[in-house]
Fold this sequence. Notes:
Layout: H1 5-14, E1 22-25, H2 31-43, E2 49-52, H3 55-64, E3 77-82, E4 86-87, E5 93-94, H4 101-109, E6 111-119, E7 132-136, H5 141-149, E8 154-157, E9 159-160, E10 163-164, E11 172-177, H6 184-192, E12 197-200, E13 202-203, E14 209-213, E15 219-223
Parallel strand pairs: 1-2, 1-3, 3-6, 6-14
Antiparallel strand pairs: 4-5, 5-13, 7-11, 7-12, 8-11, 9-10, 14-15
Helix pairs in contact: 1-2, 2-3
Bound molecules: ribulose-5-phosphate.
Ribulose-5-phosphate binds at residues 26-31, 82-85, 95-101, 104.
Enzyme class: isomerase
Pathway: Carbohydrate degradation; pentose phosphate pathway; D-ribose 5-phosphate from D-ribulose 5-phosphate (non-oxidative stage): step 1/1
Subunit structure: Homodimer.
Amino acid sequence: MSVNVKQLAAEKAVEYVQDGMKVGLGTGSTAYWAIRKLGERVQQGLKITAVATSQASEDQARELGIPLVAFGDIDSLDLTIDGADELDGELQLIKGGGGALLREKIVAMGSTRMIVVADESKAVQTLGKFPLPVEIVPFAWEWTVAKLAKLGCKPELRRSGDELYKTDNGNYIADCRFEVIASAPELALSLQGISGVVDHGLFIGIASMAIIGKNDGSIEIIEGETHL
Length: 228
Ligand SMILES: O=C(CO)[C@H](O)[C@H](O)COP(=O)(O)O
C-alpha cells in the first residue's frame, strides 16, 4: 500500500497541539489531514479553540466538532498548521494555490508558531517554479496586472470555469509565472509597492518549522525560529 505523504506530515504536526491551545487551521489538501486528525483528538477530549483560514476549512472543522472562534475575537494564536505550494531550506514559502493566501497570512502572522506541512515535491532549492499567487482588488485589475508584468513575470488571472475566480474576500488572484525568484524578500517589497495588490503568496520569516512527508515513509523536519 502506498504512503499518503500529505497525511503523514499533517498528522505529525498535530502532535505539537496541546490542551488549551488556540490553533490556526490552514487550507488545502494537506491541511485537510491535519484538521481531520485534530477533529479526532477533539473527540477524544483535547480542548482547543481554532480559527479557520477559509470557508472550506471552517466547514470541515465544524463538521468534526472543533470549536471555532473568529480571529477578531482573540489576540493571538499559539500554533498554525498549514500547507504550502513551495518551500525552500530557509522556510520561505509560496502559498495561495488554494486561493486563501490573505487569511492564511494574517492567521500565520498572528500565531506564535507556524508549522508547514508538505509532501517532498514541494521542497525546492529556489522558489519560483510554482506561479506566485497575488491577490488583487477587482477595481482596475488590468492596470494592476500590467504593473505585475513589469516585475518580470507572466501574470494570468485565475479562473473558475467561465468566471474569474474570486477569493473569500471578493478579490481576484493573478498567478504570476516567474522563471525563478532570485530574492523573495526583494520581490515581496516590489509587490507591496503596487497599489492594487492586497497581498501575495510569499511567506518570508513566518514559518517556524516544516514537516515534510517523503515517499519512502520517512519525515524530514526543518526547524526555524518563532517570529512573535
Ligand atoms: O496555500 C494554500 C491555499 O491557499 C495551500 O496551503 C497550498 O496551496 C498547498 O495546498 P495542498 O496542500 O493542497 O497542496
